[in-house]
Inverse folding.
């Protein structure tokens, strides 16, 4: 049950009525930036919790700034709008919220300046993007991660996702679940839509690439770093990572709003550890899922409850 809604041109409409014209600049040139936010269903409470929406909107604002666009709403207005859309949709399952700031002028000519922009948001049901139980098999991609000197990966720009799509499709058609992209200098950057971590069990330490290695600085990444340190006693080291470190790490896992926390059990046909979800990853997964569904008191302020009483008008 449930019906998806969208916010477009400052109005809430059923998703199937939310349309843009074929000449829209963002559609022709990839000149938009977006977010992926989850509202996670808590079965016990019969209620959804939106995870860190304010942090997502702050990243959206930064991405929009890089593309010379404005987001003329306060964080509180954006969160309220998001909660309203999720509540109206009345899905009793996990949903994905996709806000986008896009160049809305219906006009030809590649540029960023002198164009109108707009905000759209839509809601759709969305389960786990990668396997979170038995783990995933990855390859290092032949496609290199876009560089900050080309298209800035720290901005979640729609056009950048051609880079991710090339890597993902190559990986899947070659029989893997996900791609791991290297930078132009050969260091590990990230998955096609996930950040990556290595586990050094003996030192209770996580290792992850720094923002300067062309990653999208993930909100799940940041959440995992906090949970690992504050609740599980793992420190995190941000440093460049060589490809072969993936082969010999105790554990490898990926993080992202879509992917949650997914264990990487194989890289380039080499087992990681014993080829099963490792103990640190399993521990992190347990606390992470409790956190995003509003069941971890320590991080209650990361979760915005969606009122159950609000019905579609
Ligand atoms: C390329 C890329 N890296 C990392 C992430 C993870 O970011 P987050 O945890 O904020 O969803 C995403 C997901 O949006 C992504 O698309």
């Amino acid at each position: 049950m449930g019906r998806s809604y969208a916010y477009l041109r400052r109005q809430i409409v059923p998703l199937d009525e939310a349309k843009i014209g074929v000449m829209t600049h963002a559609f022709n040139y990839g000149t938009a930036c977006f977010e992926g936010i989850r509202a996670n269903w808590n079965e016990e409470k019969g209620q959804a919790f939106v995870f860190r929406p304010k942090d997502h909107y702050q990243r959206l604002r930064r991405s929009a700034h890089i593309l010379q666009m404005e987001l003329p709403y306060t964080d509180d207005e954006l969160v309220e709008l998001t909660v309203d859309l999720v509540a109206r949709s009345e899905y009793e399952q996990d949903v994905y919220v996709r806000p986008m700031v896009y160049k809305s002028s219906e006009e030809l000519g590649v540029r960023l300046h002198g164009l109108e922009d707009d905000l759209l948001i839509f809601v759709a049901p969305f389960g786990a993007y990668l396997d979170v139980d038995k783990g995933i098999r990855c390859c290092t991609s032949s496609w290199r991660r876009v560089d900050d000197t080309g298209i800035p990966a720290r901005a979640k720009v729609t056009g950048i996702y051609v880079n991710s799509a090339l890597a993902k499709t190559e990986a899947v058609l070659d029989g893997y679940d996900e791609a791991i992209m290297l930078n132009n200098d050969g260091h590990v950057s990230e998955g096609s839509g996930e950040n990556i971590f290595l586990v050094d069990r003996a030192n209770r330490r996580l290792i992850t690439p720094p923002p300067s290695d062309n990653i999208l600085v993930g909100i799940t990444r940041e959440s995992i770093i906090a949970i690992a340190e504050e609740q599980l006693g793992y420190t995190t080291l941000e440093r460049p990572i060589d490809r072969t470190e993936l082969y010999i790490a105790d554990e490898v896992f990926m993080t992202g709003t879509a992917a949650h926390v997914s264990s990487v059990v194989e890289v380039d046909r080499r087992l990681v550890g014993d080829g099963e979800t490792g103990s640190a990853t399993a521990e992190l997964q347990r606390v992470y899922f409790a956190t995003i569904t509003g069941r971890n008191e320590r991080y209650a302020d990361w979760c915005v409850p969606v009122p159950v009483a609000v019905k579609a008008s």
